[in-house]
Recover the amino acids of this structure.
């Protein structure tokens, strides 16, 4: 049983993100995510002007005059939120941890989906599969997903993005929209990410903290790896140390951006120090513009 303050927090996230969905994202969501295409609906008698390629020859032969197949757009989507709950999610150098921001992003995307009558599922992972909640519709289902992202206690601390994507490829058979929410501080996941992007509409949501990219002049600092527990002491007053760490971080970021571009994976970068509404909206807007072209 969750304490009362937890429910207040979940409710606060619902109010905040629902306002964003209502004011900003609902129209854009509908325009940039589409169903699988068209599906058969019915047959009707042929009328002049119908495309002869839609004639149903079996029905036509049975009734002695032409009938055509009628198709309709299949709008319903399945959205899957794959959320990284590894130890690095408990870090944030501002007023929010990475995990809290992940929950709010998940809420915005999930409420946008159910508002459009789509199903939403959730995969929580660390260096193992922590929990999978199959896609469903409805507000109460979304509230459950938010609760799980915020308060689920994972058994693992490390990150294995490759294993998470392999699991998704196994359990999600229908082409879906997959939001992979992580800091991407992992390696050797590129092959499965490429496979997942080939089967699904995959969007990488990278949540980073500015301290991971810009190192302050702060003298001796004890750095603790939240995933392994390992600690090291680094002298950040040393210009060379700061430079090496910053170059390493920039190289990692550049490689990731290049990989996403080469494999045509849409990506969003979100900082723990900034409001995520702006970058999310720009992503929706740019994708809608690209689809219209």
């Amino acid at each position: 049983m969750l304490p009362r303050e937890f429910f207040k927090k979940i409710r606060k996230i619902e109010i905040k993100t629902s306002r964003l969905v209502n004011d900003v994202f609902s129209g854009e969501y509908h325009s940039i995510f589409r169903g699988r295409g068209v599906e058969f609906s019915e047959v009707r008698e042929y009328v002049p002007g119908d495309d002869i390629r839609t004639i149903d020859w079996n029905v036509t032969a049975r009734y002695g005059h032409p009938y055509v197949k009628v198709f309709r757009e299949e709008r319903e989507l399945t959205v899957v939120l794959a959320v990284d709950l590894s130890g690095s999610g408990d870090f944030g150098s501002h007023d929010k941890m990475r995990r809290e921001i992940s929950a709010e992003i998940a809420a915005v995307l999930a409420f946008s989906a159910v508002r459009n009558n789509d199903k939403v599922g959730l995969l929580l992972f660390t260096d193992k599969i922590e929990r999978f909640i199959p896609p469903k519709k409805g507000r109460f289902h979304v509230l459950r997903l938010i609760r799980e992202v915020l308060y689920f206690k994972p058994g693992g601390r490390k990150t294995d993005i490759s294993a998470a994507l392999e699991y998704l490829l196994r359990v999600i058979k229908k082409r879906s929209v997959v939001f992979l929410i992580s800091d991407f501080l992992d390696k050797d996941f590129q092959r499965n990410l490429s496979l997942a992007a080939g089967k699904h509409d995959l969007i990488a949501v990278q949540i980073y903290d500015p301290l991971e990219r810009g190192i302050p002049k702060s003298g001796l600092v004890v750095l603790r790896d939240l995933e392994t527990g390992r600690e090291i002491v680094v002298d950040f007053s040393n210009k060379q140390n700061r430079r090496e760490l910053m170059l390493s971080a920039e190289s990692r970021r550049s490689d990731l951006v290049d990989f996403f571009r080469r494999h045509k994976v849409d990506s969003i970068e979100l900082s723990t120090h900034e409001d995520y509404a702006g970058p999310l909206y720009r992503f929706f807007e740019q994708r809608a513009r690209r689809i219209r072209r």
